[in-house]
Amino acid sequence: MTSLPVQNTRLGKKGIITNIQQYSLHDGPGIRTTVFFKGCPLRCRWCCNPETQAAAPELSYVERKCICKQECGWCAGVCPTEALSFAANGKAQINRARCTSCFECVRICPSQALRREGQAMSVADVLAAVEEQSVFYREGKGGLTVSGGEPLSQPKFLLALLEEAKHQNLNTAMETSGYGEYAVLAQAMRYLDTLFFDIKSLDEAKHQDYTTVSNRRIVENLTQLRRDYPNAYITVRTPVIHGLNDLPEEQTAIRAYVRQMPNTAFEALPCHRFGEPKYATLGREYTFMSGQSS
Questions:
Q1: CA neighbor of 36 nearest in space, from 57, 53, 20
Q2: Residue 37 forms beta bridges with which residues?
Q3: Are 4 and 127 in contact (CB under 8 A)?
Q4: Residues 6 or more apart from 129 whose CB is under 8 A from it?
Q5: How many CB atoms neighbour CB 209 within 10 A?
Q6: How far is CA 34 from the centre of its chain?
Q7: Cα separation values, 87 from 70, 90, 95, 101, Å
Q8: Do 262 and 156 share a structural domain?
Q9: How many Cβ atoms from other residues are within 10 Å of residue 277's Cβ?
Q10: Which residue range is the domain that position 47 belongs to?
């Protein structure tokens, strides 16, 4: 990837990105490039992008890609803390308590079974990747979408990226949990064409139980945003989660809350388990069991 020349302080700002997904069709109008930020204050039980939760880069491991000790074994040889060893079947195994995230094993792994989740990228780097799809933006009114993780968790990088994107006449969108500093959210609105704002539940106790954080800041942020930016178009999204918000009265309450706001649409999103395999690659257990998704 060829980076744009760093001509101003915005272009040089860096953030931690897990993925840049091109040809996205559900993250805003037209064909879009979605940039996934690393770091999120929520720990939703059903999260489909667990690799975006922790703020720092981390090691993932896809066992089926490992070509085994008999054919390779290089990863254990370069690990300075002896965090890597081999199981009886010859596949690598990770002692995550010993791992220091030096990623030497990632550098040497020939099959890419070991992967670094999270790369430092500048605004210039990200926009160079976005520019690769510019022909689609011109034809189909697409553009850049920032997602995560939680974009608000990297405020300086977020604002620099959005401001530079608008300077380059890109259509911009953001997907957010709404959990962050209001001042950052309000400033981001100056550079956004579309905002997708999650309201997972209006019940504070349930929200705390299913996401590990209170919904108070989220609701307050959206309410204040509607006061300060009444003409901005916002879509409130609610993932329908069994036990959290799937009862008719809960959905009715959220819809009624949204209806009282100007220029605000509502979308109910089906819950899915596409992210379940990712948990094992991070050495974590997926606890959102069958029967708990809508």
A1: 20
A2: 17
A3: yes
A4: 1, 20, 22, 33
A5: 13
A6: 9
A7: 12, 5, 12, 21
A8: yes
A9: 11
A10: 14-55+119-282
Asked if 180 and 79 sit in the same domain, the reply is no
Write 203-209 long-range contacts (CB < 8 A, 24+): 203/245, 203/250, 206/244, 206/245, 207/244
Does residue 63 lie in a domain region? yes
Q: In the block, which residue shows the tokens 């997602």?
A: 147
What is the C-alpha to C-alpha distance for residues 221 and 216, in angstroms, rounded to an integer?
9
**In contact, 210 and 201? CB cutoff 8 Å:** yes
pTM, rounded to two decimals: 0.92
- Please count the other Cβ atoms lying within 10 Å of the Cβ belonging to residue 99: 17
- Which pLDDT does position 289 carry in this prediction? 65
Q: Is the same domain home to 86 and 150? A: no
Mean pLDDT of the chain: 93
Share of the chain above pLDDT 90, in %: 83
Positions in the chain short of pLDDT 70 = 1-8, 140, 289-294
State pLDDT tens for residues 172-225. 999 999 999 999 999 999 999 999 999 999 999 999 999 999 999 999 999 999
> Do 256 and 158 share a structural domain?
yes
Which tokens go with 233?
């178009």
